[in-house]
Design goal:
Layout lengths: L2 H14 L1 H39 L3 E6 L3 H8 L6 E2 H7 L5 E16 L2 E10 L2 H6 L3 E4 L4 H5 L4 E4 L1 H7 L9 E4 L2 E9 L15 E4 H7 L8 E2 L1 E6 L5 H15 L10 E5 H44 L1 H9 L4 H36 L9 H27 L3 H6 L2
Parallel strand pairs: 4-9, 6-8
Antiparallel strand pairs: 1-11, 1-12, 2-10, 3-4, 3-7, 3-11, 5-8, 6-9, 7-8
Helix pairs in contact: 1-12, 2-10, 2-12, 2-13, 10-12, 10-13, 12-13
């Protein structure tokens, strides 16, 4: 028999015992599905992180008050860690930074007529638009003069504009934020998740002084939740971090033996955290896949041993008319590989469906790559060869006389 005849015979054997073959393939199907999803999720996570870093820039820094030991020690001494608008202004003067902007934010109720919703409101300075790359599609952003005057004006995202001013021009109209009227002066361009988890099209942005005077109540005047800074293009980010640390320690009168009362995070640390999460998810899927493949392989070995027993007379007849032991070995080994490959194909189809389902949610895009398909098919073949070899070898060692006597 040539290889094509052997493969045809393998399919005939599978079709003769459809239910048993399907149950045998189940472990392989689950395992291959997990393996393909593992590779797809890992690759998609890397592309997602790269895309986010490209949009936000790798030189973005987030400076927030407090810290682990620092906060506890300074609170016991009566000093409450804090960041201020003045801190951001001093950081703006550093030559290693392209700019720095303070942020006040909180969840508030927005209302226009009978329409209302709870949204996060960001109080910022005009420098934030440049640092974060925010662009205004309609109208304009507020100015430094508006910040000094604590003007009650607001820039909103596209979804906010559609929700409150459907088929209307929102410019010049008013939104009540906690019953305080703010005039719409601009609509942001674009949408998509930001580094803080919010959607750009749902942003509500007001001058930081207006937020402090009307919305956000901080313990002391001038306090902010955090400061966003941007290192200069082409500069050394570590130098910028060091300059920020020295400046803030000097401004906060922190002694040499005292820890910082602030924390500096950069997008590299966020990316590292995301990579750890994706690696953990990949490891979990890999473990599921490995267990399923092992269980499926054991099932294949068991079924192939049963098949050898059931077809003992057939083996004897084949050997009696000239089949060599290697021919019998190749036949049963091919049957095991075919079962695994068919199971692998079903697994790839299921993984593709699962990836499409995840992508359809709009929260995360998962795409099945050619590499994942090739690896899955390779895994399927290896499982078939590994777990099918022993039953195939056992069949090839049978003696024709004993086989023909078998009842």
């Amino acid at each position: 028999m040539n290889l094509l005849q052997i493969v045809v015979e393998a399919f005939r054997s599978m079709l003769a015992n459809r239910l048993r073959t399907l149950l045998t393939m189940l472990g392989i199907i689950i395992g291959i599905t997990s393996v393909v999803l593992l590779l797809a999720v890992g690759d998609s996570m890397k592309r997602f992180i790269a895309k986010e870093l490209e949009q936000l820039g790798t030189n973005m820094l987030f400076i927030s008050p407090g810290g682990d030991r620092a906060q506890q020690q300074r609170m016991r001494s009566g000093a409450q860690p804090a960041m201020t608008i003045a801190d951001a202004a001093s950081l703006n003067e550093l030559p290693s930074l392209a700019g720095a902007a303070p942020v006040l934010q909180g969840g508030f109720n927005l209302a226009v007529g009978n329409e209302n919703a709870s949204k996060t409101v960001h109080g910022v300075t005009p420098a934030m638009f440049k640092i974060r790359g925010w662009k205004v599609d309609k109208g304009s952003a507020f100015s430094d003069a508006d910040v000094r005057a604590a003007s009650r004006m607001v820039v909103i995202g596209r979804k906010i504009a559609d929700q409150f001013f459907y088929k209307q021009d929102p410019l010049g109209k008013y939104i009540r934020i906690e019953n305080v009227s703010f005039q719409v002066v601009g609509v942001l361009y674009g949408e998509g998740k930001q580094v803080d988890g919010g959607d750009l099209s749902e942003y509500v942005i007001v001058p930081i002084t207006a937020a402090a005077a009307n919305l956000v109540k901080m313990p002391f005047p001038g306090n902010v939740h955090y400061v966003v800074a941007q290192g200069k293009s082409g500069g050394n980010l570590q130098d910028a971090i060091q300059d920020i640390g020295e400046t803030l320690r000097d401004r906060h009168h922190i002694k040499i033996d005292q820890p910082d009362d602030f924390r500096i995070d950069n997008l590299a640390s966020f990316a590292e955290t995301a990579q750890k999460i994706s690696a953990g998810l990949a490891a979990l899927l890999g473990l599921i896949g490995a267990i399923s493949l092992i269980v499926g392989g054991i099932g294949i070995m068991n079924i192939m041993l049963v098949s050898v027993t059931e077809r003992t007379r057939e083996i004897g007849i084949r050997m009696a008319i000239g089949a060599k032991p290697r021919d019998v070995l190749l036949q049963f080994l091919t049957e095991a590989v075919v079962i695994c490959l068919v199971g692998g194909i079903f697994g790839i189809v299921l993984a593709t469906g699962a990836a499409a389902g995840i992508t359809a949610t709009g929260k995360f895009d998962v795409f099945i790559t050619l590499q994942a398909v090739v690896v899955a098919c390779g895994f399927s073949s290896l499982v078939g060869v590994f777990f099918g070899f022993y039953p195939a070898r056992r069949a090839s060692k049978l003696l024709p006389v004993d086989c023909l006597r078998y009842e």
